[in-house]
Structure formats: structure tokens, C-alpha cells
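seq as requested:
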Amino acid sequence: MDPFRRAFLRAGFACCALPLIGCGGDKPRFHNIDISGATYGRDFMLLDPDGNTRRLADFRGKVVLVFFGFILCPDVCPTALQRAAAVRRLLGADAERFQIIFITVDPERDTPSILREYAAAFDANVLGLYTTPEKTKEIADAFRVYFRRVPTENSYTVDHTATSYIYDPEGHLRLAVAHQNSAESIAADVALLLRPSQTVDKGTR
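C-alpha cells:
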């Protein structure tokens, strides 16, 4: 076999050995669910604990993870936020380009001061956001997030969607993350989205 052909085959094998990029090199292959081009979850207008209005555009240049939950959630929400904090640690020098957003679906109990303390308990980067109960329902519907109150003996709990959403640095919704997926899989996908070339392909769904 001539040297040129041998070098070409070696290059092709190396390309196919990179599972996150793919042999074509122009479309990323993610560990989590690729929903590039989705027409829902495009933006929000919510308040942070200081009363400032926040939108997705405020975080342009960062990969953003959005999770809906509530502070008295016994297991799903703490697990999701602990995992998100672990992603930041795995990203190393790129951690500052990854923003975690926690949107409460229980604003009547999750007051701004409580929301601030709860978010900070996981990572200083976690930003808790809220709005009125009426607008919470509108935002959740816009993100295709389900939630409902379930009465308990003394109060209520909230059933809700456990999926996290990830946006690329240009503010496009790219990934849906199932609750059982690992921090390592998310960190790998975030690192891929932080590559400038990967924010170009938004999909055509």
C-alpha cells in the first residue's frame, strides 16, 4: 500500500474514533438528547432573588442548563442540582462559561431569600429564578414542563418534569437531559457546545 493511502486510512480511522464529533465532523454527536431546532423553550422573563428581571439573552456566550423544580423536593431536585454542580467541577477552566438556572414551580413557598440560600447550597453559580404562580404556569407550558400540586396530610408536594434543558452560547436550545444521565455525559456535551464550530449547526427540526 502506498504511503499516501496508508496516511488517508489512518486519518479516517482517527476521525471515526472520536464519538462526540462523528466522521463528517460537521454535526456533533451528543450523549444527551439532541433537540436542536426545537420551537419551544426559547426564552423566559423571570426574577432573580434581588428582584432583577432575567432573560436567556443575559447569559449569551455561556452554555446554560435550565431545570424546573421546587425547594421542598425530597430527591429529584437536589440530585439534579448536585449533578449540575459536578458538571462545573468537571469542566475545569471552562466552568465560568457554564450557567446553572433553577426555576421554581412553587413560588408561593420558594420566596426570594429562601431561593437564594437553596441555590447557593449547591454552587455559587446556581441562579434561582421565580415569578408569580400564574406566570409560572405560562413559562412551564412554554418549556413543555409539567407540574401539579399533590395534597399531602399537612400540606402539598409537587409532581414535575425531571428533564434539564441545555442551551448553546448563542441561546439556542440544543439538549434535553434525562434525570438518570451522568454528570460526565453532560460535561462532555457542554465542552462540545463550547467549541465555536459547534454553535453553527442548530438543526432543522
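The longest strand covers residues 63-69.
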